[in-house]
Amino acid sequence: MELALDDGETRVEARLMDGLDSAVFNRESLFLICTSTYGQGDVPDNARALYEDLQKQRPDLSGVRYGVFGLGDRTYAETFNFGGKRFDDLLTELGARRIGERYRHDASSGVLPEEKAVEWCREWLAAAREGNAAAV
Ligand SMILES: Cc1cc2nc3c(=O)[nH]c(=O)nc-3n(C[C@H](O)[C@H](O)[C@H](O)COP(=O)(O)O)c2cc1C
Fold first, then answer.
1. What's phi and psi for 117, nearest 5 deg?
2. Which of 37, 78, 111, 112 to mutate to test the pocket of ligand 1 (most atoms within 8 A of CB)?
3. Which residues, 6+ apart, have CB-to-CB distance to 82 below 8 Å?
């Protein structure tokens, strides 16, 4: 993903959520949250510390723009893609602004997420850039 999207205009840095806390949002940047869903509609183990720290610290994220690429499985009908939904709801609650729609990958569809990711991300990035231009 870094290689596919990094160009002269955009510098992409992929970070694992392991060990991150809410301070990761203290920078001028555009964030793409990529998360699956485990348990009963929970964020995965490696995202829990970040998610819980955001809930606890409740930072003002009104300067943050983000997107969500969520992974899940429609077989879990009641909680389909709730990992991404949880981050989306929380970031919005903290004042951040989502760019584009939340992507909801369905593992039961047989399509691999990496087949969709680059194309989806390019469109998402284009939408974010348009937003930037509009704000200038
Ligand atoms: C124990 C377990 C619980 C899961 N719970 C959910 C769920 O509640 N909702 C959902 O949409 N997907 C659920 N999934 C499906 C995963 O999110 C999905 O397979 C995803 O593609 C896994 O991504 P990963 O391999 O990158 O971790 C669950 C999978 C497992 C193994």
1. -60, -50
2. 37
3. 37, 41, 42, 72
Query: How many A from CA of 67 to the centre of ligand 1?
Result: 20
66 alpha carbon – ligand 1 mean position (Å): 22
- For residues 116 and 105, the answer to whether their CB atoms sit within 8 Å is yes
pLDDT tens string 35-80: 999 999 999 999 999 999 999 999 999 999 999 999 999 999 999 9
User: Does the predicted TM-score (pTM) go above 0.85?
Assistant: yes
Cα gap 129→112, rounded to integer Å = 27
- Using most ligand atoms within 8 A of CB, pick from 17, 34, 38, 80 the residue to mutate for ligand 1: 38
Non-local CB neighbours of 106 within 8 Å, separated by 6+ positions? 72, 73, 74, 80, 81
